[in-house]
Amino acid sequence: MEKSGMIFDGPEGGPAVALAHGAGAAMDSPFLNTIAAGLAGGGIRVARFEFPYMRRRRETGERRPPDREPALRQAWLDAIATLGGAERLVIGGKSMGGRMASLVADEASVRGLVCLGYPFHPPGQPEKLRTAHLRDLRTPTLIVQGTRDPLGTREEVERYDLSPAIRVVWLEDGDHSFKPRVASGHKEKEHLAAAVEAVREFVESLG
């Protein structure tokens, strides 16, 4: 880990993607390690950072709930500034990390947005949608989502009014971390590889 508190993967000259973690797991979770390594292997420079509450957990071992939304949004803006600004930067992350990125993407004028398992609503509460800002989002956006994600299934998401700037890539039978059931015939490793490839193609398409 470098002095900035970030983890970097991939070539320094490559297209830059910044990723934030979900609510419960840190920036070096197995999920984000796999995604970052895959993107780095494809020539993309990946930067990962942690929100304040997760940094405190790393330092003290004390488990606290996520910071309030204003602090999470500011952490994203600070990370963008640390990485040299938004002009050539794609931002996003796992679940909450991607959601918070989506809340600052237009404001920060980033190059693109990537959400890996977007939490369209809390578990078991499909009426509490987190989609209002997604209707008018201007930033080119890729959402990679499992078809049976309990925070937004394919049947649910296809009913939402989403901006034309948003493209959704579906992983068949994947859950919130893209893991399919054994009986589905799909494998978690294959879904993670498909997610990496979708992100790589999206980043390259931005020029």
Jot down its keywords.
6 helices; 7 strands; 34% helix; seven-stranded mixed β-sheet; alpha/beta; 17% strand; 207 residues; Rossmann fold
Tell me what you see in this structure.
This protein has one domain (7-205): Alpha/Beta hydrolase fold, catalytic domain (Rossmann fold, 3-Layer(aba) Sandwich). It contains six helices and seven strands. It has helices at 30-41, 52-60, 69-82, 96-108, 154-157, 188-205; strands at residues 7-9, 16-20, 45-49, 89-94, 112-116, 141-146, 166-171. A seven-stranded mixed beta sheet has the order 1-3-2-4-5-6-7, with helices on both faces. β2 (16-20), α1 (30-41) and β3 form a beta-alpha-beta unit. α1 crosses α6 (188-205) and α3 packs across α4 (96-108).
